[in-house]
Amino acid sequence: MTNVLFVCTGNTCRSPMAEALLKHKGSSRYEAKSAGLFANMGSQAHPNALEALTKRGIEFDHRSQPATVDLVEWAHLIFTMTEQHKQLLLQQFPEAINKVFTLKEYVLTDGEYDKVYRQLQKATANFEAKRAKYTYGLNTAGLSAEERDEIKRSFQNETKEDRARLQELQSKLPGIDIGDPFGGTSEAYENVYKELDTLISRLIDKKN
Q: Which residues make Cβ contacts (< 8 Å) with residue 9, sequence separation at least 6?
């Protein structure tokens, strides 16, 4: 049995729907829970989130909870709804770095997506190495304003192709975040439900 923790902001919209979907689709192989980075304890799921579930025959009794050490330690995999959630969670629990992913990042890293993602990682590392070299040069004591300007111009010229390559690769990747429907219409919740439904199905297929 794989323990999966879904994390969003308030644990009333996205992460509860993801939890309910995984329990509904993969209950024989998964134990699912959800939490929020800024969640109150004991709030019900948003009515529009519950409506999106119940109209598909998924009954779900939910009470919100914050992300805690116990939940993080319990989970084998932790899926956040956005990259920002992921970074904030890792600031609180850096020891969980090997099991925290955005849901899309984890589910979609296969095939062509995986190829582009790895190319982007390599291109980013190459760019950051060049930037570090020039940053070191700028920190050299005794440089004149003209010398600093020349270093900056050299950096821009040398990394022109690198920056174009990064933009090209980034444009090929789908958005990694799942939008927050909070405050939106029931249609917004429907759209998030459909997106999560597809992602949870792909998660289960990936783990088969």
A: 36, 37, 38, 39, 81, 85, 180, 182
